Structures are given as C-alpha cells and as structure tokens.
C-alpha cells in the first residue's frame, strides 16, 4: 500500500477499503468549548507557577537524568526565563549537580533518550558559562559526529528521538561555530523522516508522523482498522522543531525545511483539535481511546504558539487554536492544587498506560505544559495597559545603562550610557497589539535587526519593514523584552552589556530584559 495515499489532507483516508474520518468537530464528546482568546499574561504565569510549584514540592530530590525528567527540567528553565524566579533555576541546578552534568549511559551513548538531559545543561551553561556543564553532552555529540561510526545515521528510529536529541546538536553547533553538528543533525533527521522503515516516518501527504516503523501502512492499526497516528509522538516532533528553530541562525541551510515541516504539522493538527481544546491520543481515529490527553496537547500548543510568534502561520487562524488548547488544559487538566492530570504516561501508542484519568500525571507532561505556557504567554497582553506611542529610553537590566544609538546612529546600538540624552531617545510606534518600531532621535532613522538579525541592531532605515518590527513582551517583573520579527529571536545586551545589542537569544534571561522609560 502506498503510504502517501494512506492519509490525506485533514486525515481523510483514501486508501482502499478505509473510510474517511468524521469531521473535526465530532472529535470530542459534548463539552463546553474553551475561549478562543488567551487570558492576561499574569493569569497564565500564575497557573504555570502553580503547576511547577506543586511538582517541585512533591519531588524535592530532583529525580533521575533520564528523558522524562530531563523534559521537566527543560520546562522549568523556560519558566525561570519567563519569571526570573530563582526557585526554578535552583531546582534544575541542584538536579544537574547531583548528576555531575552527566548522561545516562555515559558519553559513549548514541541513545537520544540518554542525551535529553543535555538540553537543561545547555540552558544552565547559557546563564553562567562553564565547560564542565556541557562536557559530557559535547563529548557525546562530538563522538557521534567526528569519531565513532560517523556515517551511521539511523540512530533515531522513533519520532520521539527528534525532541530528545535534535536541539543539542543545534546548540552545540551554534556555540562552537561548527556546522559539522548541523550536518550530522540533518542526516540523522533525514533518515528518520524519509528512510526509516523504508519510506520514513513522515507522511508528506498530511504533514504528520508515524511513531515508528511498526505503525507504517501494513503494520499496526486501531481496532476499527484505521491508522495509528500517535498524538504525543507528533507532539515530540513539534517540540523538536520548535527548539531547533529557536536555536539555529535564520540563514542556516536546513532552516527552511524545518520551518516548513513544523508549519505543515501545526496546520494538520489544527484540523483535528477536539472541541474541548485537546487532541485525542490517536489523531487518525477519534474512537481509539477517546478523551482529553494532556501531553500531546501541550506540545501541540508549544509548536502552534511558536509558529504564530515566528510568522509560520496566520495569527488570526491559529492563535485561537493555541488559546483553546491553553484554556482547555487549564479548565480540565490543572487541579486546584497544581497537579496536572489527564496525562498518558510512558508508552509508544494510544493503548499505552490506559486509562488516562483526571489523576494520571507525569514529569515530562509537566515539562511540556511549562514549555507550552511560557511560549503562549509571549502572545498575550499584560493585565495592565501597554505603552502608548511616544518618546522613550531603554535601560538594560543587566548593567543599568541606557541604550544609545552610538556615534549619532552610525554605529550599532549598545547599552553603555549612565543617563539618557538625545542619542538615547527613541520614538516608539505601535504597529499592532504586540508589535512596535523604534526610531532613533540621533538620526531620525528606524532601528533594524540588520542582516535578518544576524548583525547587531543599528538605526539606519528610512522606513519600517519586517526587520524594523519587534514584538514587545512585558515580563512579570515589569521589564520588557524585544523579539525581532526578522528571526523570532530576542534582543540581548550581549556580553552583559559590553557588546552591541543583537537579536540572537532564543529565550528571555537577564541580558534580554530592559526598562522602557517614558520621556
């Protein structure tokens, strides 16, 4: 059977003898439809804190360094970057130190599950660089890329593996300036996508993925004879692409493929979202263990929110998809005390760890929920009014210095002035509910994320287009961050403010926080 005719468009089945699926609206039992708009950011942060705090309180020891717990740590680091609350940083740091920043299976492991801990180690390195924090993961990936069986590219035989290991190859390549890691990443990815099991696990007709070769056409099907397209497996794929795209330079050769693949996945799952905001465990059969499931839903929210922020999909169409997912999760899965329920625990298919109930939870799902919520929060407006158009100065939190259009605007922006004068003054124009432009008073030109964000910010444009547009993110601590539309990266006061501003940060930390001061 030709797998390319096994699934189509919105998951209608055209393969011989298999009827089309029901309409997306029939995918959920009767339930109140969640709102298609996100709540204020403060409300979202409060829910994220409640879920994170409950898990930390119930698991004070930190736990092992296997993939499930490592995914939790990735989510906690995302929450730390959003809130600057050291509670979350300290918990992850204690966990990493307890494992000596090591990997299960040692540095010789090729198992993506064992490599997942490296994501949190890179997060901790970014905050306070020390080679000891990434020595194990770097040695592991270096061995795979340059030393041992360098032409072996079939290690990722299941789609979960993409989330567990893709981001670390991307981050090491960026950190070391070594494109060899990008190449190895893409070869491993290509095998999974286009060769594993024969045709590969990706179905180009639909944009969805089979979990492993056992579920390819001719293999395992649901009790009603429909395909098994596992929700969480596709969620892992969404998470992998999101993290990689947050890391890689916009001009890296494989970025267009990763962007298109995530776009197609996000649009495909939107078509089969349940009316309660969740997704079923089998995307191709609504009657195969029907009901809300949190982990797959969380990762679809993560990928969809990023796709909206980065312009991969239309905001008017897909922001409501993200909002319904968030609101559904909060209304149905989050307990009053912060326990996250309706989680399908460890498995590889819809049948695994059934039944999924209000009380079933897991560490990796909490991590996915935190990743999803922190990403979705960037799409919200704060509960208090945002800035109005006018004249402002920007002061970097990292060194308490004002951003200046250096040399009357002829040089890149840098945060190095103790007071705000003409060169440190900007006209802010609001272009949408979240987007702004900045025009320097030093030369009356617009600030641009030069070279699609690859070069420092500089005020040298006479008109404002995409490179001159920034999403203004209001942080819970009252600071603001700027996310460049040129590459969906945050503007950072590089080198603790000693270097020019540049849009290269995938997430918000102290270097990416500024005070917006009206003049």
UniProtKB/TrEMBL annotation:
A GO term for molecular function: hydrolase activity
Keyword Cell cycle: no
Coiled coil segments of this chain: none
Record keywords: Hydrolase, Signal
Segments traversing the membrane: none
InterPro entries: 6-hairpin_glycosidase_sf, 6hp_glycosidase-like_sf, Actin-crosslinking, Glyco_hydro_88, PolySaccharide_Degr_Enz, TAT_signal
Segment forming the signal sequence: 1-28
Name the record gives this protein: Glycosyl hydrolase family 88
UniProt lineage: Bacteria, Bacillati, Actinomycetota, Actinomycetes, Kitasatosporales
């Amino acid at each position: 059977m030709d797998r390319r005719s096994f699934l189509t468009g919105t998951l209608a089945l055209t393969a011989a003898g298999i009827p089309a699926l029901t309409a997306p609206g029939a995918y959920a039992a009767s339930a109140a439809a969640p709102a298609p708009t996100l709540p204020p950011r403060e409300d979202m942060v409060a829910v994220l804190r409640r879920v994170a705090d409950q898990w930390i309180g119930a698991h004070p020891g930190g736990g092992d360094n296997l993939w499930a717990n490592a995914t939790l740590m990735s989510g906690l680091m995302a929450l730390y970057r959003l809130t600057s609350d050291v509670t979350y940083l300290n918990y992850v740091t204690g966990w990493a130190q307890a494992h000596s920043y090591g990997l299960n299976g040692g540095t010789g492991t090729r198992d993506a599950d064992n490599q997942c801990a490296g994501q949190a180690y890179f997060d901790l390195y970014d905050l306070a660089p020390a080679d000891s924090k990434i020595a194990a993961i770097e040695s592991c990936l270096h061995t795979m890329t340059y030393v041992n069986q360098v032409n072996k590219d079939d290690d990722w035989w299941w789609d979960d593996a993409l989330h567990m290991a893709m981001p670390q190859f991307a981050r090491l390549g960026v950190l070391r300036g070594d494109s060899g890691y990008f190449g190895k990443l893409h070869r491993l990815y290509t095998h999974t996508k286009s060769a594993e099991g024969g045709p590969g696990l990706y179905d180009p007709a639909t944009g969805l993925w089979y979990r492993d070769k056992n579920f390819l056409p001719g293999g395992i099907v649901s009790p009603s004879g429909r395909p098994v397209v596992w929700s969480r497996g596709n969620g892992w794929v969404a998470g992998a692409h999101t993290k990689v795209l947050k890391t890689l330079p916009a001009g890296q050769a494989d970025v267009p493929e990763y962007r298109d693949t995530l776009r197609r996945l996000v649009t495909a799952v939107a078509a089969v979202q349940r009316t309660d905001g969740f997704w079923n465990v089998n995307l191709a059969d609504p009657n195969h263990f029907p009901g809300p499931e949190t982990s797959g839903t969380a990762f679809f929210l993560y990928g969809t929110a990023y796709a909206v922020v980065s312009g991969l999909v239309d905001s008017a169409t897909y922001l409501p998809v993200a909002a319904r997912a968030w609101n559904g999760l909060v209304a149905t899965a989050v307990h009053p005390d912060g326990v996250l329920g309706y989680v399908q625990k460890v498995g590889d298919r819809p049948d695994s760890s059934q039944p999924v109930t209000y009380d079933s939870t897991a560490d990796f799902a909490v991590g996915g929920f935190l990743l999803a919520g922190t990403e979705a929060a960037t799409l919200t407006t704060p509960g208090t009014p945002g800035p109005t158009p006018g004249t402002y100065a920007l002061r970097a939190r990292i060194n308490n210095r004002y951003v200046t259009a250096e040399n009357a605007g002829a040089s890149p922006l840098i945060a190095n002035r103790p007071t705000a004068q003409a060169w440190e003054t900007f006209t802010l124009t609001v272009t949408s509910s979240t987007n702004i432009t900045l025009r320097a008073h030093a030369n009356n030109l617009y600030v641009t994320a030069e070279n699609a964000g690859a070069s420092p910010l500089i005020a040298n444009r006479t008109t404002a287009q995409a490179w001159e547009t920034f999403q203004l993110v209001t942080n819970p601590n009252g600071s603001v961050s700027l996310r460049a539309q040129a590459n969906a990266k945050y503007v950072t006061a590089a080198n603790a403010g000693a270097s020019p501003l540049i849009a290269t940060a995938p997430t918000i930390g102290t270097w990416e926080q500024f005070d917006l001061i009206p003049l």
